[in-house]
Write a structure and sequence with these properties.
- This protein has 359 residues and is α/β, with parallel strands linked by helices.
- It has two domains: 203 residues, Rossmann fold; 129 residues, Response regulator (Rossmann fold), CATH 3.40.50.
- It contains twelve helices and 14 strands.
- The strands form three sheets. It has a six-stranded mixed β-sheet, with helices on both faces. Strands 10-9-11-12-13-14 form a six-stranded mixed β-sheet, sandwiched between helices.
- Helix 6 links the parallel strand 9 and strand 10.
- Helix 2 packs parallel to helix 11 and helix 3 crosses helix 4.
- It is globular, with a radius of gyration of 22 Å.
- The termini are far apart.
């Protein structure tokens, strides 16, 4: 994997890198580097002038279990938000475990030895490992922000959502399944059979509980539910295809396996004319006809705002409550997929979804 070092003033947006390079002649060189830990380096640094020598550079490690469009959106939201700060400078180093637990652990070890000012950890496995290894090595004082954890209290990551009582805080992955089911029944008329593929090893082993909860809500409405366990992307087609013939809707959970395998699920749904309703918005860009969730980029922005409180304002992680993204939930419709995935909307509802405004 290619590593990249980018030198730029922090007051400029990350996405405006090239434009900023042309506009500011004091920027440094952009270098492509190869790195043995297969991580990417992004630096936001001020040019070393006499007046800048004492400037504090905040070193931030970004730890992710693997790569996916969703994770990249979160990361960019985080970096863009901190990139807004005037006269504040950051150095970001990204660690990608590529789905390998052994590599993940070695990267956690490196982070703990790296004198970072803050760690941004994505997902349950990465975050729990940060706590486990940090406690064993008595290096549990590095402020760590997390996303993608369903119940951090139940996992003993934190003491309570009001105060973690430790160096962790972040955005919890709170699902509103009741609203999701209500919207599905409103949109998909004469719904009888729902198929839910999920990876029980994801989200710290909590996906089985989530799938069962979602199935229970559907069954209360007289809808038949088939749960299908998949443990990696390569077996999705083989395990899911036998149940597609009788399915009206295929629902996905927010686990990394179904995220990564969304293109396979889209192909199956198009082939069998099954409505694909994803529990995220990004999957709609990749072919799902419906999505329910929030912009992953906005999650990164929210984490960036918390990072600013810690690094700039001196607030302790334990003083920042853990929250979800409930206020940001949206429904996304892919009109081009409606025919292939057998979604016929009431004309009035379609007009409301495509033309409605709220003030």
């Amino acid at each position: 994997m290619r590593s990249q070092r980018v030198v730029i003033t922090a007051s400029m947006c990350i996405n405006g890198l090239l434009a900023g390079w042309m506009a500011y002649n004091h920027l440094g060189m952009v270098n492509n580097l190869m790195s043995r830990e297969r991580s990417a380096v992004f630096s936001i640094l001020r040019k070393n002038t006499k007046n800048d020598l004492a400037t504090k550079v905040h070193r931030v490690a970004i730890l992710k279990p693997a790569s996916s469009p969703t994770i990249e959106d979160i990361k960019m939201g985080f970096m863009d938000e901190l990139g807004k700060d005037q006269n504040v400078y950051y150095e970001f180093k990204e660690y990608d475990a590529q789905g390998n637990r052994t590599l993940l652990r070695s990267q956690v070890e490196e982070i703990l030895d790296g004198s970072y000012d803050l760690v941004f950890s994505m997902g349950t496995q990465a975050t729990l490992m940060m706590k486990e290894v940090g406690n064993k090595r008595q290096k549990n004082d590095v402020p760590t922000l997390f996303v993608g954890i369903k119940d951090p209290v139940e996992l003993n990551l934190i003491e309570s959502e009001q105060s973690s009582k430790n160096n962790f805080t972040g955005i919890a992955a709170v699902e509103d399944f009741e609203l999701m089911v209500a919207l599905l029944c409103l949109i998909k008329k004469n719904l009888r059979n729902v198929l839910i593929p999920y990876d029980p090893a994801q989200l710290g082993g909590q996906t089985a509980h989530l799938a069962s909860t979602l199935a229970g809500l559907l069954e209360k409405r007289g809808i038949n539910v088939k749960l299908v366990e998949v443990f990696n992307v390569g077996e999705i087609a083989q395990k899911v295809a036998p149940f597609m013939e009788n399915a009206d809707v295929l629902l996905t959970l927010r686990d990394h396996t179904t995220f990564t395998g969304i293109e396979t699920l889209v192909k199956l749904c198009n082939q069998y004319h099954v409505t694909l309703f994803a529990s995220d918005l990004d999957s709609v860009k990749h072919g799902a006809v419906l999505g329910f969730g929030f912009q992953e980029y906005d999650t990164g922005v929210a984490v960036g705002q918390r990072a600013r409180k810690i690094l700039i304002d001196g607030v302790k992680p334990s003083q920042i409550p853990i929250t979800g993204m409930a206020e940001n939930y949206r429904v996304r419709l892919n009109t081009e997929a409606m025919k292939d995935q057998n979604l016929v909307l009431d004309p009035n509802l379609f007009f409301l979804m495509t033309n409605g405004e709220v003030i």
